[in-house]
Structure to design on (174 residues):
């Protein structure tokens, strides 16, 4: 038994609580999915989203990319991570994002960072790999909306705070 690349339907696993997400009520998902994506300086942000599945994002090349991971249940930052080439400066090569955690981020430039080496990299993109398990399904993903961010904070007794303002900057247009 192993991962079957020639017959992907043999790689389906059952999820316990995902059938309500799909119109066909299928609770099966791929065991794992993987993509590459490349934000550019012209489109440099990962907008605020949430997925049911766990993710691992991998730095593959180009400019550093800063991730902000936020736990909406506890109103706290889970992690702030820079994926990039300079491990000696605290960059990491991967970041794990648990299912249910909100994530967003952007390419780092010298405007974000005093590190002059960012400009020396001479790239206009960041190349990120992403593995998702159980595998990515659009029905298990959602853009976090402005109302959801505001409600999350207000339900915990905050009318506004700095973290809410940061997250609102990454809202996908409705």
């Amino acid at each position: 038994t192993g991962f079957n690349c020639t017959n992907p339907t043999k790689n389906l696993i059952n999820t316990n609580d995902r059938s309500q997400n799909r119109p066909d009520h299928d609770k099966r998902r791929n065991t794992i999915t993987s993509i590459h994506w490349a934000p550019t300086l012209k489109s440099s942000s990962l907008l605020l989203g949430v997925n049911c599945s766990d993710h691992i994002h991998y730095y593959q090349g180009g400019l550093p990319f800063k991730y902000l991971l936020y736990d909406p249940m506890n109103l706290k930052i889970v992690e702030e991570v820079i994926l990039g080439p300079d491990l000696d400066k605290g960059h990491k090569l991967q970041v794990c994002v648990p299912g249910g955690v909100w994530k967003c981020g952007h390419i780092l430039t010298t405007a974000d960072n005093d590190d002059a080496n960012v400009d020396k990299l001479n790239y206009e993109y960041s190349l990120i790999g992403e593995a998702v398990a159980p595998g990515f399904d659009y029905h298990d993903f959602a853009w976090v909306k402005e109302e959801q961010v505001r409600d999350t904070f207000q339900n915990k007794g905050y009318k506004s705070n700095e973290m809410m303002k940061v997250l609102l900057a990454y809202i996908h247009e409705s």
Remarks:
- The first strand starts at residue 12 and ends at 14.
- The mean pLDDT is 85.
- Helices lie at 117-120, 146-155, 162-168.
